Amino acid sequence: MIVGAGLGGIAAAIELTRHGIDDVILLDAADGVGGTWRYNDYPGAACDVPSHLYSYSFARRSTWSRLCSPRQEILDYVEKVADVFGVAPLVRPNTRVTSCDWDDAAGHWIVRTEGAVFHAGAVVLATGQLNQPAYPSIEGLDSFAGHSFHSARWDHDYDLTGKRVAVIGTGASAVQFVPPVAEQVGRLSVFQRTGNWFMPRRNNVYPPLISALFRLFPVLGSVWRLALFYYLESLTAQIRHPRTFGHFGRIWSQLFMRMQLRDPETRRKVWPDYTFGCKRVLFSSAFLPALQRDNVDLVTEQIARMTAKGPQTEDGRVHEVDCVIYGTGFRTTKFMFPMEITGIGGRTMREAWADGPRAHLGIAVSGFPSLFVMYGPNTNTSGGSIIFFLEQQARYLRQAIQLARRHDAAVDVRAEVMAASTDAVQDRFAGTAWLACQSWYRDASGRIVTNWPGYMREYEKATSRLDPAEFTLIERSPVAADQGR
């Protein structure tokens, strides 16, 4: 049973079925595949990782329209991959999972949805890190009398033309939708809590000659993919070594930002005051110029409360607007919650993660047999492609399920193995830029729970071969995954 039909769930389903494990079902609350790319359809939505690497290694595409493809192109790609590899018929859309409970007596999982109950020998939680919209903790958030929505649930029925609009947040999503929104609205107020480091990304359509070469000579796409791989690894090196390699990234970013920020006052407001790479580096050549438009105000005074007319900042000013758009990102440290997960002996995942999310290689949690997490704790990347990570996780969990089937058992990662591996991950953050400031990579305790501290190639090596000695076997009654009723 795979919960989630986004890029992770699709990767897992393909990996399993290609290795003869065909009793697979994917459940998703949405009306189709695509995950975050189905939900996030705000103006300007696109990936910020080059498409030749932000795609499956086994389903390479030679017809990407530009360096970083727009949302619809990515969604079309995911839908086509699901169809070509036979995964689409396995998806049960509009099915929200409410709980997964381990049955100690039977040795299998009971998966409950809002309308059915399933029994499964193994469960894959492919709900990701970037799927639950986060709203800011602002006093009186519901007091606003105008229209409002979150960027991850864009309201296309609301016409922004000529309106007074407030955008709260200047993260990766806002950086993409602010430029087109600024061209449409009458007045735009952008509320910034902290500045960001920027890198250039014009993202123009490939010239016809380049597109033709990629199409006629697929090997060029493979070479380009490899080049992108090592370019992104170099970004990770800059974050891992802020006192050496990090200087190159910071200087490049500074030069680019100074070229774009011609207005001294806007430059002063935007300029970040933390180490390069501590927070997510943003790629855009359109956002900073948009902030300097005549109809755009950049507000750095903190919002004290929300009023019926709009945000009121700490200086007492009420910013009267017709619409508020929350570009405040996602609940990145919640993972599969609010879904309830109960493992051996009735212990819940909330209890297991009371001191912060932990999983061996970000995939297996001790006490939760044959349950695997994709895009789990410490598997996000600041300088790579998450699809690369998802493929490694799919391969690893497939090996675990094969081990379980050979022994007609469930597999549970040993507690000492998980403790050692998660401690080792945390130790690797020492001396890196990730620890130089507070960011959404951390939980309430300050522990980094989202990101992998190393390189893509290191994660590939760590997950390439499952060691059976790291798991215990738990006998179970054989069940078919499709026993919904």
Lay out the secondary structure.
Layout lengths: L1 E2 L3 H12 L7 E2 L8 H4 L31 H14 L6 E2 L4 E7 L4 E6 L3 E4 L2 E3 L21 E4 L13 E5 L3 H13 L2 E5 L6 E2 L8 H9 L1 H23 L4 H16 L3 H7 L11 E2 L3 H5 L4 E4 L3 E4 L4 E3 L9 E4 L13 E3 L6 H4 L18 E3 L12 H21 L2 E5 L1 H13 L28 H8 L7 E5 L10
Parallel strand pairs: 1-2, 1-7, 2-3, 4-17, 7-18, 8-16, 9-10, 9-16, 10-13, 11-12
Antiparallel strand pairs: 4-5, 5-6, 14-15, 19-20
Descriptive notes:
The protein is α/β, with parallel strands linked by helices and 485 residues long. It has helices spanning 7-18, 36-39, 71-84, 172-184, 208-216, 218-240, 245-260, 264-270, 287-291, 349-352, 386-406, 415-427, 456-463, and strands at 2-3, 26-27, 91-92, 97-103, 108-113, 117-120, 123-125, 147-150, 164-168, 187-191, 198-199, 282-283, 296-299, 303-306, 311-313, 323-326, 340-342, 371-373, 409-413, 471-475. The strands form 6 sheets. It has a 5-stranded parallel beta sheet, covered by helices on one side. Strand 9, helix 4 and strand 10 form a beta-alpha-beta unit. The radius of gyration is 23 Å and the shape is globular. The two termini are 15 Å apart. Residues 480-485 have low confidence and may be disordered.
Number of E-state strands: 20
Number of alpha- plus pi-helical segments: 13
Shape: globular
Taking the sheet with the most strands, its summary is: 5 strands, parallel
Mean pLDDT rating? 94
- How would you describe the oligomerization state of the chains in this entry? single chain
Strand order of the largest sheet: 3-2-1-7-18
**Beta-strand proportion:** 15-25%
Structural classification: alpha/beta
Helical coverage, percent range: 25-40%
**Cα distance, first to last residue?**
15 Å
